[in-house]
Write a structure and sequence with these properties.
Largest sheet: 5 strands, mixed
Shape: globular
Number of domains: 2
Number of strands: 9
CATH class of the largest domain: Alpha Beta
Helix content: 10-25%
Order of helices and strands: EHEEEEHEEEEH
Strand content: 25-35%
CATH topology of the largest domain: Signal recognition particle alu RNA binding heterodimer, srp9/1
Strand order of the largest sheet: 5-8-7-6-9
Radius of gyration: 17 Å
Number of helices: 3
Length: 164
């Protein structure tokens, strides 16, 4: 089976129980812009000038509860920020809003922070490291790790946008 190098993930579309609450999380805290509301039951958000990276709807889930633990479904969605400073600013906003973090890790290829959205969907916020610094074994195969992330060092960048 071959890999399709030009394929990429275009967007995620989530069932949510409260549209305005979900919009507030993804827009006000994570920084995505609302590109379109589809009545009172759906909205589309994007980073930059794309039509949407995130779809939210309550078509079948208005007022619903999250799926029970131990079932299949979305593990998490991951959002790539352009640099460490941008990641730090978003993480600082999330923490100031009282949203608990599930964890944080240095994966060798990236630095990542994990949390849950208001509907209990997993969310990863991350920044990639330079490709030349990615850990590899002696034959060049990628070897990601799961080391602790230095959160104080990351958060120190929240008020220093010129630092990466």
């Amino acid at each position: 089976m071959s890999t399709i190098a030009s394929a990429r993930v275009g967007h995620i579309h989530l069932r949510v129980s409260d549209l305005d609450r979900a919009i507030s999380f993804y827009s006000d805290l994570l920084g995505f812009a609302v590109t379109q509301r589809y009545g009172a039951r759906a909205a589309f958000l994007a980073a930059g000038d794309y039509h949407h990276h995130i779809g939210l709807n309550t078509w079948d889930s208005l007022g619903a509860t999250p799926p029970p633990a131990g079932h299949t479904g979305l593990y998490h969605s991951a959002f790539l920020y352009p640099d460490r400073s941008a990641l730090a600013q978003v993480v600082a906003r999330v923490m100031a809003a009282g949203i608990p973090l599930d964890g944080a890790a240095d994966h060798g290829v990236s630095e990542a922070v994990y949390m849950r959205d208001p509907d209990d969907n997993g969310v990863e916020l991350y920044v990639d490291k330079p490709m030349a610094d990615w850990p590899r074994n002696e034959v060049g195969e990628l070897r990601m790790v799961n080391d602790p992330l230095d959160m104080p060092a990351l958060l120190a960048l929240a008020n220093s946008p010129s630092q990466n």
